[in-house]
Known about the structure:
alpha/beta; Rossmann fold; 2 domains
Amino acid sequence: xxxxxxRFFTKCSGMNMTRCFQIGCGIIKQKNNTTKTPKxxxxxxxxxxxxxxxxxFDAHTKRIAHExxxxxxxxxxLEIKELKQRTKFNVMTSGAIEAIRMKKxxxxxxxxxxDDYGTIIIFMPLWGGSPAPAMNSxxxxxxxxxxxxxxxxxxxxxxxxxxDNTSNEIQKRGSLVTxxxxxxxx
Length: 186
Ligand SMILES: Cc1cc2nc3c(=O)[nH]c(=O)nc-3n(C[C@H](O)[C@H](O)[C@H](O)COP(=O)(O)O)c2cc1C
């Protein structure tokens, strides 16, 4: 019966019988032209990949995000853009109020698959003691199980009043804030 199976297999696969026997006994390994990354390796790679997102009204956070992304070896850096075009007056009035109330703002959709990244890094300016409203929209996009690093830019370099609230919002959604950094704009 085994002989019959070998004959059938070699006929179908076009392999000679000696080679078939050697593979069967584990003497040699079958050549495989397609290189596949093992599942575990793929998981580790995804875990190590870093996605950085930034929102910037006056370009300070943009500059910082670009500089830091190099140091942090970020794989992909994307800008968060609000749908609504804000004026300086709007930012100083309703923008700050929305930030303090932790309101979301409508943002352009991002062309990225969050599942491909293990660490999400967010650069966000402080408005009236709280991160700009775009932060609350970004938080909603983060899937569970990510490591999140926050970099908050401000004039004084102090966002202590809102730090816990921001981190809690992220952790409530099932991700972990592993780093919280206040950056004073120079
Ligand atoms: C509406 C508004 C509110 C701000 N509130 C604060 C604040 O409470 N504390 C602070 O240190 N800086 C505050 N700033 C300064 C900004 O946090 C700082 O300039 C920020 O880094 C600007 O980032 P951007 O240039 O990327 O928009 C405020 C700026 C704006 C426009």
